[in-house]
Automatic annotation (TrEMBL):
<comment type="similarity">
    <text>Belongs to the ParA family.</text>
</comment>
<dbReference type="InterPro" id="IPR025669">
    <property type="entry name" value="AAA_dom"/>
</dbReference>
<feature type="domain" description="AAA">
    <location>
        <begin position="38"/>
        <end position="213"/>
    </location>
</feature>
<dbReference type="InterPro" id="IPR050678">
    <property type="entry name" value="DNA_Partitioning_ATPase"/>
</dbReference>
<dbReference type="Pfam" id="PF13614">
    <property type="entry name" value="AAA_31"/>
</dbReference>
<protein>
    <submittedName>
        <fullName>ParA family protein</fullName>
    </submittedName>
</protein>
<feature type="region of interest" description="Disordered">
    <location>
        <begin position="1"/>
        <end position="33"/>
    </location>
</feature>
<dbReference type="InterPro" id="IPR027417">
    <property type="entry name" value="P-loop_NTPase"/>
</dbReference>
<comment type="function">
    <text>May play a role in septum formation.</text>
</comment>
Length: 292
């Protein structure tokens, strides 16, 4: 397979994989200082759609562009933490301690990753208890926003990797966020359930977090050789219009290989199409945040 990105916006006649003309996505401006962070929840109640992969690789690409990035593993499965090389049984403190222990501060749970400028709040199975324990708390939906607040000044971007559900943990993530990014597998059935996700986002916006904005819908596991992938993309654009990112992430085994290696694809296979696609996504999200 050709490793060059076929849709890079250089040619004005380029029609991208979403059927629209590919805009130019300029190099992001160099930052002169850091913070306050833009908080973005990676959200889709379906599992296996690329939430964790997008969190790791978009985070690493943003860090390459000089952004200070904090990743928050907010799934009791801890795939984000494992994908960055952590052992779930050897964590001193996790996001669970941060949520449930009044004396625990975010600084105490942050760990560095192998990527310069990118840190992690890890998670493991302990977090599954928080969903139940939070129910009895005052302002239970605001808990994550409250405990992350002290990190806002240090980072430019905080990415929250949600679990595949629309339960209280995900509501906490949406309440803590400025934006939501929805990864969607380019499969027909992926379109089911998106209406429910949209309703949930709208409810959180109305009742808990008026600033919440859908930053974009990201087509993942795209295979341009199949009519099927292209049709799903077409329907996505019909339903969500310009909310759909011009960038799509193609299906490639390099993603699972890099997970096994415990590092982002941007370092594991730095010049691969997958790495380039996430760099392109980083440029696209930065330009959207700029315009927002
Ligand atoms: N673009 C892609 N091409 C091929 N495999 C992918 C791609 N994105 C993710 N995967 C793989 O699919 C599986 C599910 O992805 P993951 O990011 O963990 O989804 P989620 O967090 O939504 O459950 C993982 O094994 C991952 O390596
Ligand atoms: Mg995941």
């Amino acid at each position: 397979m050709n490793d060059a990105l076929p849709f890079d916006g250089d040619d004005p006649a380029d029609v991208g994989p979403t059927g629209r003309r590919m805009p130019e996505l300029p190099e992001p401006p160099v930052l002169t200082g850091h913070g306050p962070a833009r908080v973005v929840a990676m959200c889709n109640q379906k599992g296996g759609v690329g939430k964790t992969t997008t969190t790791i690789n978009l985070g690493a690409a943003l860090a390459e562009y000089g952004r200070r990035v904090l990743l928050v593993d907010f799934d009791p499965q801890g795939s984000l933490s494992v994908g960055l090389g952590l052992n779930p049984h050897e964590m001193d403190a996790t996001v669970y301690n941060l949520l449930m222990e009044p004396d625990c501060t975010v600084d105490e749970v942050i760990v560095p990753t192998g990527v310069d400028g990118m840190d992690l709040v890890p998670s493991n199975i302990d977090l599954s208890a928080a969903e139940v324990q939070l129910v009895g708390e005052v302002a239970r939906e605001q808990t994550l926003a409250r405990v992350l607040a002290p990190a806002m000044a240090t980072y430019d971007v905080i990415l929250i990797d949600c679990q595949p559900s629309l339960g209280l943990l995900t509501i906490n993530a949406l309440t803590a966020s400025d934006g939501v990014l929805v990864p969607l597998e380019c499969e027909y059935f992926a379109l089911r359930g998106v209406a429910l996700l949209k309703t949930t986002i709208d409810k959180v916006k109305q009742r808990l977090n008026p600033k919440l904005h859908v930053d974009g819908v990201l087509g993942t596991m795209y295979d341009g050789r199949t009519l099927h992938s292209r049709e799903v993309m077409e329907r996505l654009v019909q339903a969500w219009g310009d909310t759909v990112f011009h960038t799509v992430i193609r299906r490639t085994v390099k993603f699972s290989d890099s997970t096994v290696a415990g590092e982002p694809i941007t370092s594991y296979a730095s010049s691969s199409t997958g790495a380039e696609s996430y760099r392109q996504l980083a440029r696209e999200v930065i330009s959207r945040w700029h315009d927002a």
